[in-house]
Amino acid sequence: MKSQELEQEVIQQAEYTASFTSENVEEGLLLLLQRLPDYFRGRAEQDDIETLVFCLHRLYNCIDTLYQHTLPTLTRLTTVQAHSTPSTFTHRHAIWEQLQAILLLLERIESHCHLLLGTSTSVLAALDVTEDAQTSTSVETEQWQRAYEVLSATLHAWQEQHQTLLAFAPTFAQTNASLAHVDASLALLFDGANAIFGDIIPDIQLVAQGDDEVVATLLFDLMQQIDLLLIQISKLVEPLQQVMKYYAVVE
Questions:
Q1: Which whole-number Å values give the CA distances from 16 to 11, 154, 156, in the listed order?
Q2: Is the link from the previous residue into 239 a cis peptide, with omega within 30 of 0?
Q3: Where do the structural domains in the chain lie, given as residue ranges?
Q4: 203: phi then psi, degrees, rounded to nearest 5
């Protein structure tokens, strides 16, 4: 009975599609990202600046959903599966839905990453041919610190969830999918996202207006981490599709 109740609970959670990001985290992230248009205003194309901020914002939301909700829900479903033989159709379908949700999130992350690479390249080029002639828009230190603490708390929550996630290879061994590199790729995907939002974005706040060399270094770091995300996504899609295909078949 408890197994059925837990199964129903995770199915209900899987159906929840509203934004998972709390209001204070959202405000804190946007405050930190505001440094980008403040620094590049008048030097890079406005469309590029807006795309850079938009894609970083959406990338954060996708990663947050992946590591705090979708993967943990799949973990709970597979825990139920381990204690429920044979799996019910409803249960198998719930696992299929979570796998589909993961693939959709990876597709969105990939799309945002490609846009980030293009806009970062354009912004870097703009820095080479323009000079800074503006005064930085200051943010109160206390306000910045509060935003950073809120974001850090979220990253810590990602880490806690990441440590408790299922291991794909043993969990889905019965699917005969090629899962040897899935867990490592998910770990590297997490590391890349953590580097972007735990190091690069906060470091941008500390750059003095006009210090193009430091900003360029941070943009190169961002592009390197984005490349890392894209490499891991390319390794994840096919194995996850194989597992999803297994759960689409009614036994």
A1: 9, 20, 23
A2: no
A3: 2-14+25-248
A4: -65, -30
The single residue listed with the structure tokens 């938009």 is: 54
123-175 per-position pLDDT tens digit: 999 988 777 655 555 556 777 788 888 888 888 888 888 888 888 988 898 88
**Residue 180 tokens, joined:** 């040897």
SS3 249: coil
34 phi and psi angles, rounded to 5 deg: -60, -20
Is the pTM higher than 0.85? The answer reads no
Compute the CA torsion angle 58, 155, 180, 230 (nearest 10 deg). 30
How far separated are the first and last CA of the chain, in Å rounded?
23
Q: Which two tokens stand for residue 27?
A: 């405000």
Q: What is the distance between the alpha carbons of residues 144 and 139, in angstroms, rounded to a whole number? A: 6
